[in-house]
Predict the 3D structure of the following.
Amino acid sequence: MKRINSTADLKIVRDAVLRQRDSFTKNIQICNTGCRARKSLKVSTALNQEIKVRGLADQVAVKETGCHGFCELGPILVIEPENIFYCHVKAEDIPEIISETILGGRVVDRLLWQDPQSGEAITCERDLPFYREQQKHVSGNCGKIDPTDIEDYIANNGYTALCEVLTTMSSKKVVDTVIASGLRGRGGGGFPAGIKWRLCASAPGDVKYIIANGDEGDPGAFMDRSLMEGDPHSIIEGMIIGAFAIGASQGFLYVREEYPIAIEHLAIAIRQAEEYGLLGDNILGSDFCLSLKINKGAGAFVCGEETALMVSIEGKSGTPRSRPPYPAFEGLWGKPSVLNNVESLANITQIFRNGAAWYGDIGTQGSKGTKIFSLVGKVKNTGMVEVEMGTTLRKIIFDIGGGIRNGRSFKAVQTGGPSGGCIPISKIDMPVDYDSLREAGAIMGSGGMIVMDETSCMVDVARYFLNFLLFESCGKCVPCREGLQQMHTVMTNICEGRGEEGDMELLSELAGIMTTASLCALGGTAGNPVLSTIRYFQNEYKAHIFDKKCAAGVCKNLFAYEIDENLCSGCTLCAVKCPEGAVSGEKKKPHTIDAETCVKCGICFSLCKFDAIRVV
Amino acid sequence: MDLNQIEQVLQKYEYRHADIISIMQDVQGLENYIPEEAIRYISEKMELNLARVYDIATFYKTFSLMPRGRHTIKVCCGTACHLGGSDRNLDQIKRSLQIEEGETTTDRQFSLETVNCLGTCALAPVVMVEEDYYDEVKPGRIEKILLNYHSDGEG
């Protein structure tokens, strides 16, 4: 094994890897991270087996990659150099793919993605509307490289940024470059990353720490997971650069326990980087040393907050503390520490690989670069998307996301998780950047983007986030602990039909107090989902409070299911499947639901093929 | 519980106080929960206050102080899953197994848990049984999913 001690060494390794690949005529990339939930491991086993049996191992390279982004279509398989994109691939499809596409040069039409509007089948990944409007820089390697193979990362210009930094820059120059790039933290707050680094670099003390936050706690967000699983080295490279900039020789990666593949891939990446001399003592032959350790989170949302996260690394229950002193001066074990989100660190790698000027050209005045979102909910195309800052919501939801499912209409998009807010249709042409989102009453947050249609109840969504936070509040400070309890009680009353006049005002007042008086951002932003829904969807609150109606059919006490006798064909499916025996009727005649017996489990509603069951 | 196995975990981490969370995660990995005797043993051997070990065991949601069933059902309640109707799936499982969240069936076959987010939001709503993911689950599918695990066979 060759230790890399210089830029020239790195080039030798890269050239050798690229030369080795010349013999391959085809390269098959199959997602083996996110798509595992869709049994992609069976597909890749079948693929490797078939390649072996047919004696193609010398010509066809199989690469088990990270997330391609279009998760809904998984398992996804891409064949290069033609860029053929196959979706919903099963192990049984493999022999046909090999004989038809690999050997015969013909496309298997039934595995292609079909445009639901035009019915046209699209062959190449890059021509899919989902990908066409994206700018994949930070997530560019995801789905392309084998995340468990450092050589694959090196072949794609990996660790060139680190070489550049360690051989040509002072730590001050590194900090200045990050400040010049305009990078703002991707974890939620949007604080300028370079300023954080400068503060920590200037703090007195010999021992400093760098920490990567991979504790992606926002429900409905999985960008960090995809990045850690699909391109762990880009995070580690950014982290090494950061450690050099602030003068740290020890770093920690704090990753959610719920992400076992991310933990596994990061551990492999650290080990490989150490073997190649890119981590550990005398990195790239210099005097600079850094060791990295992974800490597994243990299921506490509040540990995403920086001071709580540091306490958790120290081996205590993760409760936040008041700031100042800021972690840049007194952080982990009282030492100056910098904590960056994993996506921020992957951005750092891009900045030093391509230059601050290149980076500064992407995005808007106040929000530079690209942002990765997890686009989910009632949108047609769900998955991980990366767009330039300033891209409009319309473009993300309708062009990339393909619009709303099942012919329904857009109602709102929720960004920023439990600290964020819901944005209505009137703001659909708003550019997505830190400042516009804040003005609209939401926040960028970590990048969850959850699309809602008319079957989503906005009052219920607000209650959902309060319920989440009530459960996750650490209980240390009174405003958060008691405020959440009270807000949750009021919201539950509204959702269960006990809402009263004045409830909305009371909620706003409580949210205001929590914003002013809470110890950390968890409580400080907890009112946002409620405030933003009251701001944009006041009529829905009024319908719940005064009319005792939930038109979306979500709040169980405020609606009933009814069968439309004109649409019901009497197929009996609902009557057979109803667990409570609440549906009755004769075969081929309209059925009825007994409102007393019905528990509103929704089984009949989801099963009916004639849309005969409606919410009243 | 075999205290020797706990001792091995403690030795692996060299009794470092900072690694207490990792230690307890490993100990939980042995029998899928942390019995009281394990907490007492860790406290004594690591010379850590019993209250501190108990604090960690109860603060972090991953730890269970009660034995779990043979199959752990995790209902994802992330935002995307919530919008997709995870509550109804959860209700249906509760009705079917006659247990609440955090409980185990009397025959010790199933434990029911909810999780904040599994990070598989594009496939929402998701239910996980052991290591198997079930995507786009509707309440009507619950019975069929549970049947895969009901028998004493392979599960």
About this structure: Chain A has a mean pLDDT of 95. The longest strand of chain A covers residues 370-377. Chain A has five domains: 19-132, 158-359, 370-456, 459-545, 560-615.
